[in-house]
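Deliverable D5.2: sample structural annotation.
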Amino acid sequence: MKRLPGMRPIPPRALIKILEKAGFRVIRQRGSHVILMNEERVRIVVPIHRGKDVRVGLLRAILRETGLSREEFFRLLEEDP
């Protein structure tokens, strides 16, 4: 079994691209927060603050809300855009 790397902070735009690959789509942006939703109407909010990455704690919470496993997240992260 391939060992997964540890979670690290990720740029918000990269996280949004990963969520889009997972079936979410941007429905709106309000200020510095982008709101995404999938077919099951699961709503995710990703903060976008200049020069700041999404920290590991928030990233884990977002993954929990989306239902993505770490394995799926890392697979989507490694895929070409």
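Annotation notes: The chain has a mean pLDDT of 90. Residues 37 and 53 are 21 Å apart (CA to CA).
The annotation will be released with the project's public dataset once the embargo ends.
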